[in-house]
Design brief:
The structure holds two protein chains of two kinds.
Chain A (H helix, E strand, L loop, with lengths): L3 E4 L2 E4 L5 E7 L5 E7 L5 E9 L2 E4 L6 E3 L9 E3 L8 E8 L9 E2 L3 E5 L1
Parallel strand pairs in A: 2-11
Antiparallel strand pairs in A: 1-3, 3-8, 4-5, 4-9, 5-6, 7-8, 9-10, 9-11
Chain B lengths: L3 E2 L4 E5 L4 E3 L2 E2 L6 E7 L5 E7 L5 E3 L5 E5 L4 E6 L8 E8 L6 E2 L3 E6 L1
The chains are: A mainly beta, B mainly beta.
Chain lengths: 114, 112
């Protein structure tokens, strides 16, 4: 079955360490997204990519970086510059970056930094 | 910029009662509209969407939503709540030239 795989499910890191969250999709979607979810704040867009080798900052990109070397993969690195990295991170994709197509989500990675 | 409001961060209903979750958006041009459901520690799952055509949209798990342009609303309803409906629900809009905008979410509790 097609879908989005995020790994790991839970991730624990010490403050000051960079950490990379994996997101892989086999839906053949062009557009991929990273969201951060905090209690009571809904979803906030970190980065998105509409095509391989291209990506744009979302609303809260500071302290994060991404790459899009393959259509299927869109890893997110949480750097030590991110002041409050503990959160639930969701990866999503859609066939293209606009229009009526819905977002498809992975099951998320819960990152805890102490 | 587009915004989405969901009235009530937490809604409680009794099992078997009507579920009504409210969503309003800000736009003079109707965007595409979506409802998603999220169970604890999981991703979001699409319940239903409105793009064009019939304004009453039916989704999965017995949910439906009605697009009302004059009220800029897209409220989600289900005639009879089930314990398994307890989850967080997100309304979202997708303007034709912008990324998705999500509401803050409404947590639904179903009481026995």
């Amino acid at each position: 079955d097609g879908g989005i795989t995020q790994s790991p499910k839970y991730l624990f890191r010490k403050e000051g360490q960079n950490v990379t969250l994996s997101c892989e999709q086999n839906l053949n979607h062009d557009a991929m997204y990273w969201y951060r979810q905090d209690p009571g704040q809904g979803l906030r867009l970190i980065y998105y990519s509409q095509i391989v080798n291209d990506f744009q900052k979302g609303d809260i990109a500071e302290g994060y970086s991404v790459s899009r070397e393959k259509k299927e993969s869109f890893p997110l690195t949480v750097t030590s510059a991110q002041k409050n990295p503990t959160a639930f991170y969701l990866c999503a994709s859609r066939p293209n970056g606009q229009g009526s197509s819905p977002l498809h989500f992975g099951n998320g990675t819960r990152l805890t930094v102490t | 910029a587009q915004s989405v409001t969901q009235l009530g961060s937490h809604v409680s209903v009794s099992e078997g009662a009507l579920v009504l979750l409210r969503c309003n958006y800000s736009s003079s041009v109707p965007p595409y509209l979506f409802w998603y459901v999220q169970y604890p520690n999981q991703g979001l799952q699409l319940l239903l969407k409105y793009t064009t055509g019939a304004t009453l949209v039916k989704g999965i798990n017995g949910f439906e939503a009605e697009f009302k342009k004059s009220e800029t609303s897209f409220h989600l309803t289900k005639p009879s709540a089930h314990m398994s409906d307890a989850a967080e629900y997100f309304c979202a809009v997708s303007p034709s030239d912008q990324n998705f905008v999500f509401g803050p979410g409404t947590r639904l509790s179903v009481l026995p």
